[in-house]
Amino acid sequence: MYAQLVKTAGTGVKTREEMSDEERNFQDRVDRDEKIEPKDWMPDDYRATLIRQIGQHAHSEIVGQLPEGNWITRAPTLERKAILLAKVQDEAGHGLYLYCAAETLGVSRDELTEELLSGRMKYSSIFNYPTLNWADIGAVGWLVDGAAIMNQVPLQRTSYGPYSRAMIRICKEESFHQRQGYDIMMKMAEGSEAQRRMAQDALNRFWYPSLMMFGPSDKDSVHSAQSLAWKIKIDTNDELRQRFVDQTVPQAKYLGLTIPDENLKWNEERGAHDFSEPDWAEFFNVIKGKGPCNVERMEARVNAWEDGAWVRDGLLAHGRKKSAARTAAE
Amino acid sequence: MADQKALFEFLLRMGDNSLILGHRVSEWCGLSPVLEEDIALANTALDLIGQTQFWLGLAGEVEGKARSADDLAFLRDAWDFRNVLLVELPNGDFGQTLMRQFLYDAWSSIMLGRLMTSSDARVAEIAAKASKEVAYHVERSGDTVVGLGDGTEESHKRMQAALDYLWPYVGEMFDGDEVDAAMVAAGIAPDPAGLREEYDAFVGKVLNQATLTVPTDVFHHKGGRTGYMHTEHLGHLLTSMQWLQRAYPGATW
Ligand SMILES: [Fe+2]
Ligand SMILES: [Fe+2]
């Protein structure tokens, strides 16, 4: 999940009696699964929450280029290099769709970028973990894109039209990414002893951070209830995490890899796997900037933005000269 | 039949140009000045790596020693690379990267155009496919060079500096030797010197639009396409590019 701990604006779910006419009408439309479009009336808190959520998702796509970019220059074959380049290009494209979706809510890409670079807005905690061996690129596709899909498939039905449409486009590509990631893992798992070691090492390091992607348990959260009622959240964090574990366990087994959790076992009664919670203290540390790569990730983004200022200014100035020349010619 | 050794050399030159430039461009991943450029640069790198697979794949076939495109890319040392020096130069700032791209794209689009009528059908086929991609690259890099050259005072200054730095590496693309003579004789590829006039006219026009001044010094560096003397930069590039293949010989990825 690329949007974690998104604080829902407002005071919680209102009863029908507490709602204004506009609010009631809005909620009815959401309940009927009608899509809310940019020009429609919407509660301020709905708009504010969506901006946070879509913005955080967009930032995650952008920062998410970095851990994978870390291996583009070291990809082991031309084909792997091409696949990874295509994936990272897709992720940048996802960022673009999402910034466009956020723009329909009245916030510009530059404003959101400022929020990210100043640290006021976050991106997914997962991208603060390093990619240390080539199997990490497999693990990222398999687990990280896998977890993202888990969250984003239901969000295709989200109430906000532009967000829903962005999700539909994105999900198609994410499932490619996951398959390609798993394919790398297969090659590694079938490979030499060193390669199997890389694969297991990658799984060891990425397992719990992947579980953290869904955010802490939100069963008691009032905020979460409001987001669910507005259908900008479709499932709870725990439901998504469970689904992810249940899907991933057999895949790991097929690879002959061991998920680093001694408590992991099938629970006949629940019809689901029991598993250990990730270390939530670590999660909150990462969110607060104390993850293994937070400093590097932010530094990379800030430098890219600052070093690129002259380029953006130059192209803008040229654009203005051109349109001035056009006007003069008319 | 054409001299297979010469053909192999020629194909290495084509493949190594796109491999090394594609690698350089891929170093920009996630670090561009604006999201659209991240996407465009990744796309350019992707096309160049795709072209590499064709050129080096054919090179391996022609050589006849069962070397794959990957073997050629990842298991040769610097002295066996046949790319021009221009493409192995470091990225520098975004302006330098785009100027290098434009200077290369302009050559590449003309070269591929000629290769489409190659007497070797395999060469003609790769050129036809690649030329579509490169037509787009040169349009884009040309537009960016114009936009930044004729942008602000600072962007102009940076683009002129990039041009001044890169220009002495342009001439190598038009050098010829006995490999080229063999290609010309077999009707496989044109004489590199024969591309110069069209190149100068096209590049001159774009750089003029960009309000940039083409250096008048005709001196140029050489040693890349013959492999006689690469820059110090190539070894470092290969060090990261070839790391996994070298550290874990024989593994399947
Ligand atoms: Fe994505
Ligand atoms: Fe993805």
From TrEMBL, chain A:
EC number(s) given by UniProt: 1.14.13.149
Biological-process GO terms, alphabetical: phenylacetate catabolic process
InterPro entries: Aromatic_CoA_ox/epox, Ferritin-like, Ferritin-like_SF, PaaA, PaaA_PaaC
Bias kind Basic and acidic residues: ranges: 14-28
Renumbered residue ranges of the record's region Disordered: 1-28
Keyword tags: Oxidoreductase
Pfam families (alphabetical): PaaA_PaaC (PF05138)
Key word Ribonucleoprotein present: no
Alphabetized GO MF terms: phenylacetyl-CoA 1,2-epoxidase activity
Any one Gene Ontology cellular component term annotated for this protein: cytosol
Coiled coil segments of this chain: none
PANTHER family: 1,2-PHENYLACETYL-COA EPOXIDASE, SUBUNIT A (PTHR30458:SF2), PHENYLACETIC ACID DEGRADATION PROTEIN PAA (PTHR30458)
Protein name: 1,2-phenylacetyl-CoA epoxidase subunit A
Gene: paaA
UniProtKB/TrEMBL annotation, chain B:
Top-level taxon of origin: Bacteria
Entry GO terms, CC: cytosol
One GO term of the biological process aspect: phenylacetate catabolic process
Pfam entry (one): PaaA_PaaC
Listed NCBIfam families: PA_CoA_Oxy3 (TIGR02158)
Protein name, entry field: Phenylacetate-CoA oxygenase subunit PaaC
Organism expressing this protein natively: Aliiroseovarius halocynthiae
